[in-house]
Task: structure prediction
Amino acid sequence: MFGGLSGWHLIILFVVVVVVVVVVIVVTASASNRRRTAQPQGGVGPDGYPLSTRTNTMAILSLIFAFFISLLAVVFGHVALAQIRRTGEQGRGLAVAGLVLGYLSIAAAVIGVIIWIVMFTQLAHYGSAYGG
Result:
């Protein structure tokens, strides 16, 4: 079906496709958010309040959690983007970085589990073939 590709080649192909899809989604979302959330002139945010120079706390936490607990990084990143859009706070780049790292970590974990399952089933199959 895949022109003689072995299991490892398919896994590597899958990883590359996932990374490309994630990058395309992030770049597309980033470009559309920049157009949609352009800040008005005069230092006033979209809700009429003055623009803040504070950095959003959820964005900072998203980037920090990206290195420890990826699921929390994704949750905090989405919450941060919504808050930044609403309040005009700084930290959009931190939130996007936390989201990208969080999603990549989750994808790597899923791929790792798939590789482990494939290796375990192959070991069980070949082990039973030799009487083990």
Observations:
- The two ends are 31 Å apart (CA to CA).
- Residues 32 and 62 are 21 Å apart (CA to CA).
